Structure formats: structure tokens, C-alpha cells
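Researcher: Following up on the earlier apo prediction. This time include the ligand. It's nicotinamide-adenine-dinucleotide, with the SMILES given after the sequence.
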Amino acid sequence: MEKETGMTRTVLITGAAHGIGAASARMFAESGDDVVVTDIDRDAAATVADEIRAAGGTATGNFLDVSDPEAWQALSRELRAANRPPAVIVNNAFFQVGGAAHEQTEDDWSKQLSVTLSSVYRAMHTFHDTLTEARGSMVNVSSVHGVLAWAEQPAYAAAKGGLISLTRQLSVDYAPHVRVNVVLPGAIQTRQWNHQSSEDRELAGRQATLQRLGTPGEVASVIQFLASDGASYVTGASLLVDGGMTTTLGA
Ligand SMILES: NC(=O)c1ccc[n+]([C@@H]2O[C@H](COP(=O)([O-])OP(=O)(O)OC[C@H]3O[C@@H](n4cnc5c(N)ncnc54)[C@H](O)[C@@H]3O)[C@@H](O)[C@H]2O)c1
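Model: Understood. Below is the ligand-bound prediction.
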């Protein structure tokens, strides 16, 4: 059973100042949820929250470096004091350094795993009780890179693959009260693609059977679905949101 409909849920989203996280924040707020817009980009998180409130929604912008256990504790104290216990957590933040394994330093490797994978452990460690109390859910943001390899992204691949098995594990350990699911986006038009050449963007578009990059909103709507009553019998699931990229050998 999900929390009764009609009650305001608090939804905490990490990496919500830009891209898929920001689109998710707007979408949850539009359907009446109270959104905690967290990010290391404090100003941009505040701007997203300001825009949500200006549109009639409920949100705050909160600093959260997902790699810092103490920052999770500080946010937990703040949200509990404000009677905003998260019923839904969307783990979306990531950090990526390119380069083959021998080119990556210990620090590069550790930071990527900490931000992208261990942050999900921290989220559950910190808020398992509020998710359980709310009969809530967690949605993790992996990638098609969790099931296929592209050149010179070893820590990203390890973290994104790890998110798929960690999701399955958490869905077992916190059942029956908390549902835990993961989405695997393909190429989504966010600022991440601004650094890529137009040839690479076009190739990624052609590799999707839908013949284009996705939009942040097209991932946000799937995240929102997984956190909704409509997905009340879905847990431990990995859902591709890749426009068909991984269904064929591509362009
Ligand atoms: N864009 C794509 O093509 C694509 C494809 C597959 C998966 N994804 C996944 O989607 C998610 C969102 O990516 P995006 O494309 O929207 O990128 P983005 O750069 O627009 O957003 C990522 C956000 O994470 C924040 N962030 C970085 N380090 C952080 C930290 N330590 N603590 C908290 N926040 C931190 C950034 O400030 C930023 O706001 C990521 O998990 C990414 O791996 C994206």
C-alpha cells in the first residue's frame, strides 16, 4: 500500500539543479508533491525551487554533496525538524571522469564510486525509516552504460552497473514496505551533451530506434511513474528509457 492519495508527499531528489533531476523536481511538484531539490550547485538548486514555488508548487533548494555522509545527516536533521520526512528519494547525482583504468587516479576512482553508487547506500542508510513509515519508494538513475560498455569510462560503468544490482538488493531488504526501482536512460539531451561533437550527438540519435536523443522530461515521467501508485506492484525493476538504443546493434 502506498501512502494515501491526497496527502502531500515529500520527494527528495539528488543532483536536481540541472537536467533530468531538475525536470523530475518540476514534474513531482506539478502533481502536488513537496520537493527537496538537492545539489552541490546551491544557486541552481535554489533557482529550480524558486521557479517551482513561483508556479504554485512547494519546494526548497538544499545543498547536498551526496558523497559526504555528514551532509546527509545534516539534511536529515533539517527535514525531520521541518516535518518533511522523505517518502520518495530519487538518486540521480553522478560524477564522471574519462580515461582508461590505468589513467585514473585512486581519487578519481573513489570519488566516482562515492558520488554515483555509494550515495544510494547513504540515502537508504539515512532515510530507511521515513521511506518505510510512508510506504514510499526509491528510484535510482543508472544508465545504458550499466549494461553496455563505451570506451574509457570504467568507474562510470562500474557505478552504473552496481546501481542495478544494488537496486535489486535494496528492493529485497526493504520489502514489503519500500519499493526500489532503477531507470536506465540512453542518450538524453542535457548539458552533458554540450561537450560532445555534433557528430557524436547525431550518432547517438541514430543508435536509438526512435532516431533521436531523449529529453529530460521523458526520463522524469518514467521516474515519476515508478514512484506513483500506478507502479504499486513494481519493485526491483530495471526500466530502460533509451529510445530503443540497446535493442539493436544501432546505426
Ligand atoms: N544525459 C544523458 O545522456 C544520460 C544518460 C544516461 C544516464 N544519465 C544519468 O542521468 C543522471 C542525471 O544526468 P544529467 O544528464 O541530467 O546531468 P546534469 O549534469 O544535467 O545533472 C547532474 C547533476 O548532478 C549534480 N552533482 C554532481 N555531483 C554531485 C554531488 N557530489 N552531490 C550532489 N549533486 C551532484 C550536478 O551539479 C548536476 O546538477 C545521472 O545519473 C546520469 O548518469 C544521463
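Model: Residues 1-5 have pLDDT under 50 and may be disordered.
Researcher: Noted. I'll compare it with the apo version next.
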